From TrEMBL:
The gene is thiD. This is Bifunctional hydroxymethylpyrimidine kinase/phosphomethylpyrimidine kinase. Pathway: Cofactor biosynthesis; thiamine diphosphate biosynthesis; 4-amino-2-methyl-5-diphosphomethylpyrimidine from 5-amino-1-(5-phospho-D-ribosyl)imidazole: step 3/3. It catalyses: 4-amino-5-hydroxymethyl-2-methylpyrimidine + ATP = 4-amino-2-methyl-5-(phosphooxymethyl)pyrimidine + ADP + H(+); 4-amino-2-methyl-5-(phosphooxymethyl)pyrimidine + ATP = 4-amino-2-methyl-5-(diphosphooxymethyl)pyrimidine + ADP. Its EC number is 2.7.1.49, 2.7.4.7. Residues 19-264 form the Pyridoxamine kinase/Phosphomethylpyrimidine kinase domain. Gene3D superfamilies: 3.40.1190.20. It comes from Anabaena lutea FACHB-196.
Length: 276
């Protein structure tokens, strides 16, 4: 008889939308968790019909169903960290914030999905305010892109100094432990440069610039990788550094699939093994 090895691994929860094209959302988050040897669980907030070219349709999940998913996971399995992505509307945001409070989920990464990297607002102003007032203050870290940082800070961002000023304002006014302003939407030498601030420490994260059009899901991947590292027991700054390195390598192995913008290569070690 073969001996069965019983494994115990950390658990992370993603609360986000489903991407039918597999390039972002919960599909990306779960692959990122798996890469880090963290068991991934999910609460789906909306279902999108999308591919590498664009989004065809978005359908919200009832807030009661989102709550039920969170409760089912936390009450039985438990979670060591969680991340939020697309929450879509005010009702879902409020419900998720209530569950985070009720279950005292401390290692919370909030990717404040409200504006695309191209500057298109994805949720309405009431939802933005609810996100700002109820969920973000509970986060260990928020990871806004350039345009989201502009909304949350009230500043126009065009330089490294602007990114730093916005991070300081968000840290002070939103009550979050740490802020990571992402530079994926910046231009020139600032593209891909991120700014970290935790109230005491400033850091600028720079890596090599990867020339690829296949960058779909980088924001989801980064926040999921931070959550995975937190679930593994790493401190917040280390979690951010290692997540940034992971995203950069995954970009290097981005997938040229579909007719538009493909996703990053979350499983790049397997690509290397198989010589792809």
């Amino acid at each position: 008889m073969n001996t069965v090895e019983i494994l115990t691994v950390p658990v992370a929860l993603t609360i986000a939308g489903s991407d039918s094209g597999g390039g972002a959302g919960i599909q990306t988050d779960l692959r990122t968790f798996a890469f880090h040897c963290v068991h991934g669980t999910s609460a789906i907030t909306c279902i999108t019909a999308q591919n590498t070219v664009g989004v065809k349709r978005v359908d919200a999940i009832a807030s009661e169903a989102v709550v039920a998913q969170i409760q089912a996971v936390v009450e039985d399995i438990g979670v060591q960290a969680a991340k939020t992505g697309m929450l879509l509307n005010q009702e879902i945001i409020s419900a998720v914030a209530q569950q985070i409070t009720a279950y005292k989920i401390d290692n919370l990464v909030v990717d404040p999905v409200m504006v695309s990297r191209t500057g298109v607002q994805l949720i309405d102003d009431d939802a933005v305010q609810t996100l700002r007032n109820t969920l973000i203050p509970q986060a260990a870290i928020i990871t806004p892109n350039r345009y989201e940082a502009q909304i949350l800070s009230g500043l126009e961002i065009a330089s490294l100094e602007d990114m730093q000023a916005a991070a300081e304002i968000m840290h002070r006014e939103l009550g979050v432990k740490a802020v990571l302003v992402k530079g994926g939407g910046m231009s020139g030498n600032l593209r891909g440069v991120d700014v970290w601030f935790d109230g005491e420490r400033w850091e600028t994260l720079t890596t090599k610039q990867v020339e690829t059009k296949n960058t779909h899901g980088t924001g989801c991947t980064l926040s999921a990788a931070i959550a995975a590292n937190l679930a593994l027991g790493k401190d917040l700054w280390t979690a951010v550094q290692q997540a940034k390195d992971y995203v950069t390598t995954a970009l290097t192995y981005s997938l040229n699939i579909g007719k538009g913008q493909g996703p990053v290569g979350h499983f790049f070690p397997l690509l290397q093994i198989h010589g792809i």
